[in-house]
Amino acid sequence: MMGLTPYLILSAILLVLGIAIVISKRNAIAMLIGVEFILNAATLNLVAFSRHGIGGLSGQTAALFVIVLAAAEAVVALAIFLNFYHTIATVDIDQGDQLKG
Amino acid sequence: MDGLTPEHLRYLWPVLALIVTLGAILVGALIGREGSGRRGLLAAALAGLILAVLLALRLNPHSALRTPPSGDWLSRYLFLDPLYRFVIIYLSIFLGGILLVSNSLWRRPTWEWPVYLCLLIGSLIGMILLASARHLIFLAIAFEMASLPSYVLVGFRRFNTKSAEGAAKYVVFGAVCSALMIYGISLLYGVTGTFDWEQIVLRLAVEGVPPLAVAALVCLFIGLAFKISLAPMHFWCPDAFEAAGADVAAWLSVGSKSAALLALARLAHILLPSISPGIRDHAILLVAVVAIVTMTVANLSAYWQTSVKRLLAYSSIAHAGYIVCGVLVLADTAGTAAIVAYILVYLLMNLGAFSVTGLIEAQNGSDHLDNFVGLGTRNPRLAAVMTFFLFSLVGLPPLAGFAVKWILLSTLWQHELAFVVVAILANTLFSLFYYMRIARAMYFSSPQPVPSLQLDGGSPLATIQVPGLMVAVLAVCAAGLIALFLGWGLLNNLSLSLFAT
Amino acid sequence: MLEAVIFFLLAGLAVAAGVAILLSTSIVRMAYWLITMLIAVGGLYFLLGAYFVGVIQILVYVGGVAVLLVFGVMLTSRQLAPKLRPGRGEVVWLALVGFVLLEALTLSILHTRWQQNAMAPANSVGEIGRSLLGEFLGPFELVSVLLLVAMLGAAYLARPKVPTQGPQHAKGTTVP
Amino acid sequence: MNSWLLTSIIFVPLLGMGTVLVVPPHLIRRTALLFTLLAFLLSLGILPHFLGTPIQVFGADYQNGFKLVDRLPWIHSGGFAIDYMVGVDGIGFPLVLLTTVICLLACIASWNITKSPRGYFALFLLLETGLLGVFTALDFFLFYVFWELTLLPMYFLIGIWGGPRREYAAIKFFLYTLLGSVLMLIVMLWFFFASNDQGAHTFNLIRLTTPGVLPAFATHKAMWIACFTMLYIAFAVKIPVFPFHTWLPDAHVEAPTPISMILAGLLLKMGGYGLLRISYPILPHAAAVQAVAWTLGILGVINIIYGALCALAQTDFKKLVAYSSISHMGFVLLGIALLTQAGFQGAMFQMIAHGITSAAMFFLVGVIYDRVHHRDIPRLGGLAVQMPIYTGLAILGFFAAMGLPGLCGFIGEIYVLLGSWQAQVLGPVGAKVLTVIAAVSVVLTAGYILWSVQRVFLGAAKPEYEGVPEISGREILVMAPLGALAIALGVLPWQTVFTFVSGTLDHILKLVA
User: Which chains touch D (3 or more CB pairs under 8 A)?
Assistant: First the structure.
């Protein structure tokens, strides 16, 4: 019988990986991938807590919402990236240098 | 279903009215011929906003329905208190003003207009719910609801490089911060077993705050700080505002910031008095440092800007730094009241300043500072109201910007936060430099034709025509700034009354 | 015992995916590693007995988001910036910060007294449905509006440039 | 109970501003003149209230000693108690009168402003309202609001209608003053929340002077020294005292002539008035500290000597006058710092005298500048031949500033020197040393004034100034009242000034001692 702790530690590792990806990558889509890691860490937490009797069922339901939010966000983000790409033909954030300051 | 009484339903009506308006605009746009009926849609949107305000006005201003979540359906998700009512009225009226300004500045194809309206109304709904949420999942959804349309609005000028880039930066930054916030929420859920903020606080108060909960609260703070644009989560702000149209920038600078500020104030207002003094002191210190760094960084960066929207973006970051100081004061409701008073006046100043900038941009095709040169002679009235807004942003009497700064400073002083007072005052001095650059351009520099900036054959030196609706908006903003200075007791009373319970 | 083996297998896969993404320079590979991670996490949900969430994870995430991402990659990845690989100094710095963060989080997790009960019985879809329309009715309604607005925004941005339909439109579209 | 006289004096110019903004262009000047004249006539109405009665101030009762008090509740919410409260006593009233006179004359002197006159006169009238408010406000918050209100119009008046380096001068003026204002704001917060007037906080400047209303301040020395210092800087920027004086030459030189008149004649007085109205009565303990007296006294002497030396070195006529202002305002600080009856009276007299002479001098410089379009002293000369009437008036004005006996400048300086000679606060020798050094400036002042008079007016007529028109009737209309006042104050100092101010000043001195 696995306890709660391994899941939480895995979730923490995923969070740190996500943050590292976001920080180290300059490509917008890669950064979005990092965000998905963080969000998955959060859902993993929610499901693990819920299944180990903390807060009843609501953790799992909340995990569903997080997944939906991630999807909605990804859709909008990708639309924006595509538009950006169409406009200046790259998705590398650093290549945009119109906005200075 | 558990108790959805008519009383509670009344609290839902304003939001429902907004959702219906959103749907109606979409349907209207689908039924109507493409590219027609802009005025009709504007009227529909304004009618929806007015309806929401009226419905909100019908709510009992004094009843604070903070019953436990088992009691009823709606107050499980929202704090149905006077502040909720205030946020609906405040943001709806503000969006009404924005729509009038947008209508005057609109240069894009007509078919985009309903999309624009729907996005604005969608973000309005998100902001209202964000400011009042008590259920953390609800808060996260409201947060996204406020954010997603904002990302699109920033990138609304499609095939414009700046706009596309600003939106891309904004969405990446926003996605990271919201993901961190959701991670924090999941941890809080694990520690306390609930998503309800009051119960979380109760649990933390009873059982102490484990380190993991501290990490979770920091994550939550990061999310809100992103929306408020506190350092170091402020980088999106200048990029996004420069990328967006002036009207969208005005909407974001006031709407999303005040919504997140009120959310933060509300959460802090419940949390901080309940937890142990040690953690509370650390939290206050953290917020104080963040606030001071925010205002200082913003004011120092603003000086070098030549894009006025960007300059105003830094100004709005600095103001976010000032306003968030209200969170530091917890012993009574005065801190939150100071925030409310400040955002009320901030609305007038920023709507005004961004509207004038939008007019200049529409005329000249750029918001570069050079386009303001000679405005004092080209259109003295426009320059005069812009000066009003700038001086009010500095915080000089006899304008309301001073009154609210005074309320904030005196509140801080009373709670022995003199170092924050000094920091705010020092920043006020810094800020003078860059606000004065606009005033200087308008009045002191002699107008010279800038050939590269001409558009549509119009000379930048030509008198600027201000559309009628815009005149009304600007007049209301300018008159409001004087009236709210002379009568700032009313302002103070109003904001204090929101927390009378 | 078997549970532990499966856990470590899936967890290892997820972590390996993250590390691979960190080290990878190809955005396409990153997308596939992301899918690996998503499937691994979905597997963990099944292991936890949260079958419905697991199914949704696979359906929405792997089937929707990840596919969308791959499309995004396909549509945009013609120019891959060479600087995608982090510099050596950056790697050290990142590893250090990441390690400290991880250490802090792990220690906090280990030191928190969880009010955990015995493993709850696996829930039926019906119960989750009731919860969705019970405790989570508000978020449920709100999320529908959110999806509407998000779709509208995304559709707007993704809409191709409208051909000019006459002089008044031509003027409108060229104004920045 | 409220007589509304002061209120109407304060707000008549504001009403004028509103009117100026709407009247047709050819009526702008006349409207502005009408309203400044109206304010002047109304301010004459204060005079009867001060004739014949000895003036006592700061009694136990709110309004004892203050005349014509208008009081309305303004903000009473959330713990604030802010009143609209104005009133005049012996030191407020002469300054109100001075303000209306100088503004009236400056309005006449503004007749030849051609660049957007509507904006100019609107700001001018707003400035007058701010000044009148400062000299009458009896509520600290109100005082601060009016104090800041003078800032904005002055910034634009210098920045738009000024000389070539107007931008620089305007922003410098603005920054220095705002720095002072910010410090004053802190003190205001401090006073308000430290005050305990029968259980409530108060901004009332009269109540704040009452012993026991600031209980914490009675015991904490560091607190009152800190507040005194911050207030001092706020006021020192305006006076201006070395080292906060550097905005002044720039601002004066760049400002248009009428604005220089107001700047030197009135704005600088806000600093001295602030010291007498707020710093000394509310923080008497701080003022009585020997180190404070030393510091202020030495700074005053530095101002006197430094200003005079700089004036001596100038070739720009307007800059010379500007530095002479610094020198003369040094006497105000010295007189106040050393806490003697004669010193206080001399300082107050000097403020009024300097208001008259500096306005006159700036106007005289402006008259030349209008005609020859430069202010370079070495290039001028022999104007006495071309412009005899002007020269006569100018020499009157300059001699008044120099301190020739019989003219107003003399009385103030001699009283200050007398006062500082008698001063006890610095020990037996210290004050005398300061007095002697300050007295040296009499020679320096005579030096630069006589020298410049010689270089500008005397000597052989220069051919390039052939045909320079004589001073016009309108200009005489400005200069004649100033000259008359300079003589009147010099001949009848007691009847014109001392009789009004001495009671109030004695009372302030009693608080300190």
Answer: B
Question: What subunits touch chain A, counting only 3 or more CB pairs under 8 A?
Answer: B, C
Give a yes or no: residue A21 inside a domain.
Answer: no
Number of domains comprising chain A: 1
Strand partners, D316: D376
Residue C102 has its nearest CB partner, among A13, A69, A90, at A13
- Residue A46: band (very low, low, confident or very high) from pLDDT cuts 50, 70, 90: very high
Q: Is D423 within 8 Å of D431 (Cβ atoms)?
A: yes
Rounded Cα distance between B272 and B331, Å, is: 9
Q: Which two tokens stand for residue A3?
A: 């306890």
Domain that holds residue A54: 26-90
- Cβ-based neighbour number of residue C1 at 10 Å: 6
How far CA B194 is from CA of A43, B145, B188, B190, B191, in Å, comes to 15, 22, 8, 8, 8
Q: What is the predicted ipTM? A: 0.89
Cβ distance of A65 and B137 shorter than 8 Å: yes
A15 lies in a domain?
Answer: no
Closest alpha carbon within chain A to C85: A25
Residue numbers in D near B492 (CB within 8 A): 75, 77-78, 80
pLDDT category at C164 given cuts 50, 70, 90 is very low
Q: Is C121 on the interface with A (CB under 8 A)?
A: no
Instruction: Give the model confidence (pLDDT) of B226-251 as tens digits.
Output: 999 998 888 899 999 999 989 999 99
d(CA D192, CA C132): 55
**Is B31 among the domain residues?**
yes
Asked if D72 is an interface residue toward chain B (Cβ–Cβ < 8 A), one would say no
Interface-testing mutation among B154, B157, B171, with chain A (most A C-beta atoms within 10 A): B171
Say if C34 is an interface residue toward chain A (CB within 8 Å).
yes
D223 touching chain B per CB within 8 A: no
B1 found inside a domain: no
Residue B187 tokens read as 């941890």
Number of neighbours of residue B60 by Cβ within 10 angstroms = 13
Number of domains within chain B: 1
The answer to whether the CB of B146 falls within 8 A of the CB of B177 is no
Classify D116 as helix, strand or coil: coil
Cβ contact C31:C15 at 8 Å: no
Give the tens place of pLDDT for each residue, D275-310: 999 999 888 888 888 888 999 999 999 999 999 999
